[in-house]
Amino acid sequence: MLTTYTYPKFEYLTPPEIASGQTLKVPVVVVGAGPVGLGAALDLQLHDVPVLLLDEDDTVSVGSRGVCYAKRALEILDRYGVGDAVCDKGVSWNVGRTFFREQEVYNFNLVPEADHHRPGMVNLQQYYLEEYLVTRAASRPKIELRWKNKVVAVAQTGKTMTLKVETEDGCYTVETDWLIAADGARSPIRHQLGLDVEGKIFMDRFLIADVVMKAEFPSERWFWFDPPFYPGQSVLLHRQTDSVYRIDFQLGWDADPEQAKKPEYVLPRIKAMLSGLDGKDREFELEWVSVYTFRCRRMDSFNHGHVLFVGDAAHQVSPFGARGANSGLQDVDNLGWKLKLVMDGKAPAALLDSYSEERIFAADENLVNSTRSTDFITPKSTASKTFRNAVLGLAKDHAFARALVNSGRLSVPAFLTTSSLNTPDQAGDAFVGRMLPGAPMDDAPLRDNGADCWLLNKVGNSFIALYFTEDAAVLPEPTLASLANLSCGGIAVQALVISARPGRPSGDIPVLEDPRGVAALRYDAKPGTVYLLRPDQHVAARWRALDAAKLKAAVARATCNM
């Protein structure tokens, strides 16, 4: 057990179906109560979809496991109601430093510009995140959590899935319209359905050591190549909450994983590292130790009939770059609104094909970056190592070499610019900046009735028509009438006006003020500019003038109703 954290034990209740012998029928089952499965349940409850969440355990993850949550994941967690808890408890950081032997050769800032609500990264042990998500899910009326309920068999019959669930009191059967598999990298559901993942396993191992100690190291990411305290290998240092530090040591493929985890092997390495940083002989306690191997692989498709795969069940990457849980949360952020529309009959099943299309694009981006990072961190030939060391030696003084340094390209959201759901810019509608169709939205500070607020906290969960104006108080009646009637085939589109000046039009259209022009700058918005925003806070389309017919056509395209 850990010295800094007390594991909760969630209550197991005997499922009533065991005594009654009846089959439980629910619209959606999520299997796996890790961050991604819990995120899937919370995303669906935002769309008023009842969810049964099953997990074979009765507590949160053992050990800190995932620790880095990127800005986009934090913005998604804000929608799920746990963003503040994660940021308040965790360690926020933006700066990373890379060292070669004794010298710093490269550094970066994840959020170099001001006026963003969330930092580039927050470090927080995974068990805290899971605990916050469990507490939130348990408070939602349409989420039922069942602990110590293990899915042991899955079968698809027509348009429904049948699950056999095993408990300490016996087995029962669940019938569901949709099954979301969030059951991890080894995914029993994937195996039961005869599906596979394809990719690459890298011939190297790393040791994870979580260390409790009092230290004044800054809240930054530090990565060393060939440091004096661990010659020839690589080391990573991260600060977490509760005075816990994560240290990763490269081991090499020939290392014995079980031997490497023993205290007599781990402690001397940590002592040498800490002494090598500043010459101090610090006291510390070993909190948790694990050994992992790099894997970069994914399924061919993330949707199979009425089974939808998310997170590690669908794709796996090496830990460097923090692309695992962050990518999984983006999976469910992409999936929830699409599944809701399909369930309600407002979109065809092809919309779920777009879930796989878009998230495979993101997964491949993660796999490429993760593979490149792994090849740079653990070169497998003398020539590769010579090239890497040459790059590191030049990086301190030459910008071209810094661009080649790769200690783990950190998680960023995918720009879904090739998605079939996007409406391309119209001829003559010239834009600059990064808020192009398919882009994840940039945040911006605004004011709502005189109170400070953030753009991303005002959008999401539905389609939004974002209309920019100089003065909302003088919007003409035809414009107001168009903004008030934007529904498309039963799919609601809410209008939201961004005004440079204070003032509100008649009617119920909400207005946010942009007195400093930050939102207008980030969205290259002139008066009259319109953005169609998806429920997952991605840009679907944009125009220089409001045209209700074009906007409705873009909604139809974004929901596969063309």
SSE blueprint and pairings:
Elements: H1 16-20, E1 24-31, H2 35-46, E2 51-55, E3 68-70, H3 71-80, H4 83-89, E4 91-93, E5 95-100, E6 103-109, E7 121-123, H5 126-138, E8 143-147, E9 150-157, E10 160-167, E11 170-181, H6 188-192, E12 198-212, E13 221-225, E14 234-239, E15 244-250, H7 257-260, H8 263-278, E16 285-298, E17 303-304, E18 307-309, E19 315-316, H9 324-343, H10 350-377, H11 382-395, H12 399-402, E20 445-448, E21 451-454, E22 463-471, H13 477-484, E23 493-501, E24 511-513, H14 518-522, E25 530-533, E26 539-543, H15 548-558
Parallel strand pairs: 1-2, 1-11, 2-8, 5-13, 11-18, 22-23, 23-24
Antiparallel strand pairs: 3-7, 4-7, 5-6, 9-10, 10-11, 12-15, 12-16, 13-14, 14-15, 16-19, 17-18, 20-21, 22-25, 25-26
Helix pairs in contact: 2-5, 2-9, 3-4, 3-9, 9-10
Give an account of the 3D structure.
The chain contains 15 helices and 26 strands. The protein is α/β, with parallel strands linked by helices and 562 residues long. Strands 1, 2, 8, 9, 10, 11, 17 and 18 form an eight-stranded mixed beta sheet that branches. An eight-stranded mixed beta sheet has the order 6-5-13-14-15-12-16-19. A five-stranded mixed beta sheet has the order 24-23-22-25-26, with helices on one face. Helix 2 (35-46) packs parallel to helix 5, helix 3 (71-80) crosses helix 9 and helix 9 runs antiparallel to helix 10. The longest helix is centred in the middle third of the chain and has 28 residues, at 350-377.
CATH topology of the domain at 16-90 and 122-198 and 299-370: FAD/NAD(P)-binding domain
The pLDDT mean sits at 93
For the record, give the distance between the C-alpha atoms at the N and C termini, rounded to a whole number.
55 Å
- Oligomeric assembly: single chain
**Shape call:** globular
Q: Low-confidence stretches at least 5 residues in length (pLDDT < 50)?
A: none
The percentage helix is 25-40%
**Helix/strand class:** alpha/beta
Tally of helical segments: 15
The CATH level-2 architecture of the domain at 16-90 and 122-198 and 299-370 is identified as 3-Layer(bba) Sandwich
The total count of strands amounts to: 26
